[in-house]
Write a structure and sequence with these properties.
Two copies of one chain form a homodimer. Chain A has helices at 2-5, 21-35, 42-48, 63-76, 88-104, 109-112, 121-135, 141-164, 169-181, 189-193, 195-199, 203-219. With 225 residues, chain A is mostly helical. The first copy, chain A, has two domains: 2-74, Homeodomain-like (Arc Repressor Mutant, subunit A, Orthogonal Bundle), CATH 1.10.10; 80-219, Tetracycline Repressor, domain 2, CATH 1.10.357. At the A-B interface, helix 7, helix 8, helix 9, helix 10 and helix 12 of A face helix 6, helix 7, helix 8, helix 9 and helix 11 of B. Chain A binds a DNA duplex (30 and 30 nucleotides) through loops.
DNA sequence: GTTTGTAACGAACACTGTTCGTAACATACA
DNA sequence: TGTATGTTACGAACAGTGTTCGTTACAAAC
């Protein structure tokens, strides 16, 4: 759809059409989902497309650019919410939950593209939606804007944390609990006493709690300071 | 101090003593502080110690183990607070602020060791202290335990965010603002309308706000659910 | 003085991202 | 039909990376 709509030159049509940015990102996402971000090397992506690594650089600026493009595609799949002042809190939970799930489904992408300021329209669309939900609560703009940032941190953190437990959800918790129990109680009285609470709850429950805490906190008047 | 106190064999003393885990971590931290985590390669660390990369593997399990050891040393420098129920909130801000500053001083370490569950006694000591401050507020143990996790996420996020602005604090903000202003107002009404609020505040101010939000939120009764 | 065990070296392996000179190819023009 | 053209893809090469391991050197113990 590019060659016909943009006739910048008389000889615009490519000779062959097996390679394209779309195809490269598709192949990269497939590897990402199955084997994680570390496995997404330029050579591996190229091999999946039956070509050499160097050929990718025509359509992708490099590994970093490819990662950003992958992140963009992942975010694009997330269904947004049309802010409703009567149920904005539930909508917030839904949206952030879907975001977290999408990140978990692509291991490593959360840690890699966590803090880059949003640039693409897709990511900005997500921010726009998040901001809309927060403002629907009646929050003042400044608090809503900062709350969006705080929630983004929680989503990323929860996603990375969930990735760790992806292989075996309970095994890690058991191991951590055992580690806590083994500690000398005289030097770590609180950790040993509350080991159960520290590892309590599943990923979902903890995430719900975190989002609620942030919402409740940002709704509360800034009392102590 | 190791060779004399632990005579596990009759021939215990090493032939030479230029290399040690301590020396390796020291050299790695120096590179980390000046050039960031990506620059901390096994070869570069070895070169700083006038040896080959392979020689490091006697004292360090590998790159990952070295990073953990570096993280441990960084955390070890953080001064803890003895919980005081009359000023726990200020103590919390102090402790988390120092933690964030220490992470920012070592670019990349926050993103790398963010979510690994705490294992070493040093890191657990920090958790113990954090838990102590939260419990000093009168929080029930379960909420305090989960709050510790939420705050850890905020610290890591703030540290990574601060690293980005390390080179030029205002340049990035200006660039992001310009990006927001350039957006089509019809599709991004909220972002364009509140672009100022989105980038408002320095790193410190935003961090203080985030910590206060979490504290206020976890103190609030779980109203809506 | 010889034996012994540990510590250090450094070459080698299998990778990584990236660059770039070269070759192929269907298209446009003569 | 033949030549020129500009895009496209290839694949070798470069400078790195983490890690392994056979070999060597050295100071202490017998």
């Amino acid at each position: 759809m590019d060659s016909s709509s943009r006739p910048r030159s008389t000889r615009d049509r490519p000779a062959k059409a097996p390679l394209s940015a779309e195809a490269i990102i598709d192949a990269a996402l497939a590897i990402l989902k199955s084997d994680g971000l570390d496995a997404v090397s330029m050579r591996r992506v190229a091999a999946a497309l039956d070509t050499g690594a160097g050929s990718l650089y025509v359509y992708v600026t490099g590994r970093e650019g490819l990662q950003e493009a992958m992140f963009d595609r992942i975010i694009a799949t997330i269904e947004l919410e049309t802010p409703d002042p009567s149920r904005w809190r539930a909508q917030l939970h839904s949206l952030l939950g879907r975001l977290r799930d999408a990140l978990v489904a692509h291991p490593g992408i959360a840690a890699a593209t966590m803090v880059d300021p949003p640039r693409t329209e897709v990511v900005l669309g997500l921010l726009e939606n998040l901001l809309g939900l927060l403002l629907a609560s009646g929050l003042e703009p400044q608090r809503a804007a900062w709350a969006a940032d705080i929630l983004a941190a929680q989503v990323s953190y929860a996603a990375i944390e969930a990735e760790l437990r992806r292989t075996d959800p309970t095994a890690l918790a058991a191991q951590v609990t055992a580690n806590f129990a083994r500690l000398p109680a005289d030097r770590f009285p609180l950790i040993t006493a509350h080991a159960e609470q520290l590892v309590a709850g599943g990923v979902d429950e903890r995430f719900r709690f975190a989002v609620d805490v942030v919402i409740d906190g940002v709704l509360a008047t800034t009392s102590a300071r």
